[in-house]
User: Fold this.
Amino acid sequence: MNHNTPLSPRPLSHLTDVQRRVLSANQLRAHGVSAARTAAQCQPGGPWQQLLPGVYVLHPGPATSEERLHAALMYAGWPAAGRTKAIPAQGQAPAEAPQAIVTGLAALALHGFSSAPPLLSLDRIDILVPRTRRLRSTGCVQLVRAHAMPYAEMITGVPVAPVPRALADAVAVVGDAQAVRRLLTEAVRCGHTEPAAIVRELTQARLLTRAHVVDAVDALLAEGRSIAEERLYAMVRGFGLPDPVWNVDLRLPGGPHLGGLDAYWPEQAVAVELDTRAPRQDDDALWSEYTRKREALERLGITVVHITPRKLRESLEQQATVVRTALMASTDREPAAYVVVLPR
Assistant:
């Protein structure tokens, strides 16, 4: 711990360096350090300092960002405050993680957001806890209460909220419109998450009543569609699919408008439509419109393949196989009705 303050012989080899430097009062007692001795070590000029109630840093001088992070979680009861599921690595069963999770700007910094301030510059560290916890914000720790705790991701050994939830908690306290837009845009542009997941969290947090957040979401949705279109182009080129006509409207000759499509293969009567819906209050109406258009096209013999931005990001080859299969199957179908193809 500290060469001037020997503790009991209980082994510490299982602890990381930061866990040896940041300990709770209970942990100190478990190593034979009384409350009186702890208080004496934290006197002015002493070798230790109390960073938060019941949490101590076993060195003088400013705490590092890693120490502040561990201290904040420890104050909130990590790892002893009950447990929730952590997101497992691919192919692994869910692991256990405590119900105290880093969220907000601190979480985004841990996720590697360049638009989030570095940890050391943050005056507050948001910690997500169940709403039933009897604990108050103090010092650098700002508690954020959750009706339902999200799955945690373990980053540098600490539980961190997933990006959509961390964004919502950050947006709740960031008043600068440009900063909000940068955070949301980076989340999508750098592949951290999809627009729909972000809008879902912002809706649940009741943040879409704020004008600057609505403006940022509109820019986010445009960004998300642009990225999805680029991935769709890359899929067609990269997996050797025949060239479609891009961004077209279909009409019956002299008849009604059938709808817009992102890609269309006229000879095979196969269409691709990007499903970039975001969960808003009018989502049911928008989905009904998607369904109506798809059913109308399929009655005319046109196969419609719906692809989400997430599928383009996570399983591009699989989506290319779906489209290729639809194109090959066209030879076994009755010819489609004649439609007029117009640029959109």
Observations:
- The radius of gyration is 27 Å.
- Residues 85 and 96 are 5 Å apart (CA to CA).
- Confidence is low (pLDDT under 50) at residues 1-14, 89-97.
